[in-house]
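Exercise 7 asks you to align residues with tokens for two separate proteins.
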Amino acid sequence: MINIVLPVDFGDKTEQLVEGAVKFAKQLNGRIFLIHVAPSDIGFAIGDMGYQYFPEVEQNEIREELVQLNKIEQRILAHDIDCEHLLKQGLAKETILEYAKAKNADYIVMGSHGRSGIYDVFVGSLTKGLTKDSPVPVLVLPIHD
């Protein structure tokens, strides 16, 4: 079975990315390992008193993101594709590459923005970094408005 890592950010194009990954997984008899990387500084704010940490803000944000991740997993499972998910805090590129290695990924599936001809804007800096440093192929799906 082909292992596909699918990073999601819950942006407005996530649904298109998931649909493309589902089609890809069906063609290859693959399973999807869904990952969302949350920033490590979710609960921090800068105010008059400098940096402050609010653990309840971090907990609420993580809880909401986990609900969203579970919903995406259920949509993938509804297509008869094996799926599991991980929500982890950290640096996106490094965390995704570690997850891909841990899951023996055959592919990482990412989306492009399709806004202009400038590479960083067109593909995105995370996708660019993954395609540069990933030991496995990175499939970039075109995401349109």
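Second protein for Exercise 7:
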Amino acid sequence: MSTITWSIPVIVMMILTIISVFITLFSRIQAIRKDKISLDDLRSMDFYKKEHPWLEITSRHLDNLFQMPVLFYICFIIILLTPALMKIHYFLVLGWLFVSFRIINSIIHLSTNNLSLRLCSFLVSTACLFTMILMLLFELLKLH
């Protein structure tokens, strides 16, 4: 498989993150314009949950995209740097499953915020990532 094929799930994950940056940014700008928060509130990033739940949700969502997905990025960098690993198709399947369930998690988090659905999508994406990491370790040990 080509480098381009392997790069697409990474790019999709990065696009999801950029979209979340804009959602968070526009939410904050709108709150400032409507005098719901002040610039001092942004300095401290202290949004009161009951007064500004949407700002809290968008901020936490963006934070989440800089946690587990970082491990996904590292896995794919290792795979892209190791041609023998790019021949193993299940890594790409696990990568797409991770990205898909992170997108589902984002949609849930930024819409209904149904905790049980969000937890399920999080657990599936995490299981895919954990499997990818373990299999990556196993395959790297086999190569040496």
